[in-house]
């Protein structure tokens, strides 16, 4: 169950395979699950375990913020396997309990008509339900190399990043000492389209002016 011993090669390989098509241990944003698994590791995975290493560096970048990741902390062995709850539809009303196909013992014309009506009614109710788009507000801190870096160019570069599900918002410069300022900028993202790893990777591509990127706040909205 779970990844097994995360201090062993087999455990790390299981973690790497698990993260092959996931950004986080559970869900679409950092949670207590990521903090628990991160703390179970003795250090960064080998470079050959690219998925696990990417995830490790991303979670590591949060620093002490890991302690406040949302969710309930569970034993590390409970992570890494498909949960029965995850397989359930997130629709929690009684629609899912409807027997769409009735009793097949007597497949009469009347029963077929009743089945058809039930299916149509069910489809109509599902179609009327509003689609909720999960969004998050993220505050990033972008640090320059030195006091000679033009922060207007830094901000212009950051705002030039465009993607479906990403909207840049307010920003400000925060002094860090010795005449150096860092850019603190807010953005709103759609959780199923944009992750913090994407933002970090895109911003650090401007390596001539950007030294590093930190996540200072991550809130669901």
Automatic annotation (TrEMBL):
Residues 80-105 are annotated as: Disordered. One of its GO terms (cellular component) is eukaryotic translation elongation factor 1 complex. The keyword Cell division does not apply. InterPro entries: eEF-1beta-like_sf (IPR036219), EF1B_bsu/dsu (IPR049720), EF1B_bsu/dsu_GNE (IPR014038), Glutathione-S-Trfase_C_sf (IPR036282), Transl_elong_EF1B/ribsomal_bS6 (IPR014717), Transl_elong_EF1B_B/D_CS (IPR001326). GO terms for molecular function: guanyl-nucleotide exchange factor activity; translation elongation factor activity. The keyword Protein biosynthesis applies. It comes from the Eukaryota. Pfam families: EF1_GNE. Residues 88-105 have a biased composition (Acidic residues). Residues 135-221 form the Translation elongation factor EF1B beta/delta subunit guanine nucleotide exchange domain. SMART domains: EF1_GNE (SM00888). Keywords: Elongation factor, Protein biosynthesis. Belongs to the EF-1-beta/EF-1-delta family. Catalytic subunit of the guanine nucleotide exchange factor (GEF) (eEF1B subcomplex) of the eukaryotic elongation factor 1 complex (eEF1). Stimulates the exchange of GDP for GTP on elongation factor 1A (eEF1A), probably by displacing GDP from the nucleotide binding pocket in eEF1A. EF-1 is composed of 4 subunits: alpha, beta (alpha subunit of the eEF1B subcomplex), delta (beta subunit of the eEF1B subcomplex), and gamma (gamma subunit of the eEF1B subcomplex). Interacts with elongation factor EEF1A1. This is Elongation factor 1-beta.
């Amino acid at each position: 169950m779970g990844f097994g011993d995360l201090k062993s090669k087999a455990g790390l390989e299981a973690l790497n395979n698990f993260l092959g098509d996931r950004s986080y241990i559970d869900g679409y944003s950092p949670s207590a699950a990521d903090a628990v698994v991160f703390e179970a590791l003795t250090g960064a995975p080998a470079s050959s375990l690219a998925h696990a290493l990417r995830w490790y560096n991303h979670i590591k970048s949060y620093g002490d913020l890991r302690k406040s990741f949302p969710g309930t902390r569970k034993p590390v062995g409970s992570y890494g396997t498909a949960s029965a709850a995850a397989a359930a539809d997130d629709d929690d009303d009684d629609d899912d309990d409807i027997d769409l196909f009735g009793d097949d013992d007597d497949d009469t014309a009347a029963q077929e008509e009743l089945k058809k009506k039930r299916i149509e009614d069910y489809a109509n109710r599902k179609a009327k339900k509003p689609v909720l788009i999960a969004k998050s507000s993220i505050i990033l801190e972008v640090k320059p190399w030195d006091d000679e870096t033009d922060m207007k160019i830094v901000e212009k570069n950051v705002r030039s990043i465009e993607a479906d599900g990403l909207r840049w918002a307010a920003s400000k410069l925060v002094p860090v000492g010795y005449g150096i300022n860092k850019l603190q900028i807010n953005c709103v993202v759609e959780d199923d389209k944009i992750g913090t790893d994407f933002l970090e990777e895109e911003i650090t591509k401007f390596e001539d002016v950007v030294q590093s990127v930190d996540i200072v706040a991550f809130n669901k909205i």
